[in-house]
Amino acid sequence: MKAVVFTLGCKVNDCESGSLMEGLSRMGYEVFDELVPADIYILNTCAVTGEAEKKSRQAVARVRRLNPEAQVYVLGCAAERAPEAFLKKANVCAVTGARQKGKILQLLGKRGVFLDEDDAAFEEMLPPRRFKSRAFVKVQDGCNNFCSYCIIPYLRGRSRSRKLESAAAEILQSGAEETVITGIDVSSYNDGGRDLADLLMAVRGAKSRLRIGSLEVGAVTEKFIAAAKAANLAPHFHLSLQSGAERVLGKMNRHYTKDDYRARVALIRAAFPSAAVTTDIIAGFPAETEEDFAETLAFAEEIGFSQIHCFPYSRRTGTAAAKLADIPPEVKSDRLHRLMALGEKLKKEYESRFSGSVLEIVPEERREGFTQGYSENYIRLYTEEELTQRTKVRAVRPFKDGLLAEKIQ
Question: Helix 258-271 to helix 290-303 angle, to the nearest 10 degrees?
């Protein structure tokens, strides 16, 4: 029997899907993570934007085209948001939500909606099945921040953390060339008073290169930075911004100011001088003026991000921001493209600093005659040599969306 686990959305979804794939494999299924003909499809959905929800709904039709007789099981944030709508679709047998995802494996052969309201404890899942040289370890779930634009706290539930000993054991035993520590709000990791810095200290002997997922501003403290250095954390910090305008940050219910953000970036760069600082920014938040947007562009340039993940604002019914007046889509689109152009400029400026430098590639795939992967500071590297493990290379020049590199002989 063949089974597919198809994932939409975030890296946490990827991690959870990997756990489901490992479970299916232990049950005797031949398992795939791509849309290929199969007997069973498990769809791990996303609802962070309206477009993500749309793609989640369309995934059911896509798998039906591959096998009109297939059994389809749906879970995740989009399923949590509209379970009955998914159940009405042809071939869908069972639907569960964004909590206790592992139970979908006990629902094979059953029919109905099986939502779980319990978000009191972290769900321990099997170590994810891994197809690439990078592993993801989930240490936290849920969110308590309630940013005014975000639906995820209503779907994933309250923040809860994995036991430090369990998380540390999986990280230390991952066997991957690189291990990414991730969560919905990994900054809020807290196991009985032991925080993210304590977790990093517990894994400082890891053989794998360690990287951390998206951080909130408040998580970057002197204690965290000291632990990051002790754990030899990759010098790449994804520090969520969302807007560089003070007025908009307030409306977003983000709990920091621009001065706070500047200070945390300064902490990072004092300890990791060549660190990549990447971020997320929303273009076209309700009531964002042209002056607000100009303030965001200026702040992004001041910080000198190495990469900006740009998103147009997506109205999410049930959030505080949904009550605010939206701005015209053409204005939103214009701002998004201007932000993307700035992001590309800053990315090239950052990467140009490393031409001639020695970097370390973790190879992820071999395609079109090049081994491709990421450096420790999250620059996409391409090399003609066939590599299978973490390797020192010398960056030569700009190439495609990153740098061309040569293996150091």
Answer: 20
Query: How far is Cα of residue 203 from the mean position of the Cα atoms in its chain?
Result: 21
Confidence band for 130, pLDDT divided at 50, 70 and 90: confident
Residue (of 31, 30, 82, 27) closest to 60 by Cα position: 82
Determine the 3-state secondary structure of 348 from DSSP: helix
Contact in structure between 4 and 42 (CB atoms under 8 Å): yes
Alpha helices in 242-328 (DSSP H): 246-251, 258-271, 290-303
Same domain, 329 and 201: yes
How high is the pLDDT of residue 155? 95
In a domain, 69, yes or no: yes
Residue 287 has pLDDT above 90, yes or no: no
- Of the three residues 350, 372, 388, the one that is the final residue of a domain is 350
| pLDDT tens, position by position, 223-250 | 999 999 999 999 999 999 999 999 999 9
Separation CA 17–CA 6 (nearest Å): 8
Helix H or strand E segment including 349: helix 329-352
Mean pLDDT of 358-375: 96
Q: What is the CA radius of gyration of the chain?
A: 21
Same domain, 162 and 206: yes
Q: Are residues 240 and 383 located together in one domain of the fold?
A: no
With H, G, I as helix, E, B as strand and everything else as coil, classify residue 109: coil
CB 177 within 8 A of CB 362: yes
Same domain flag for 323 and 254: yes
Q: Which pLDDT score is estimated for 117?
A: 79
Which residues lie closer than 8 Å to 305 by C-beta, 6 or more apart?
A: 277, 278, 279, 343, 346, 347, 350
* End residue of a domain, out of 326, 350, 374: 350
**Do residues 82 and 228 share a domain?**
no
Tokens matching residue 382: 């391409």
Question: What per-residue string of b and e applies to 227-240 under the rule 16 or more CB within 10 Å gives b?
Answer: bbeebebbbbbbbb
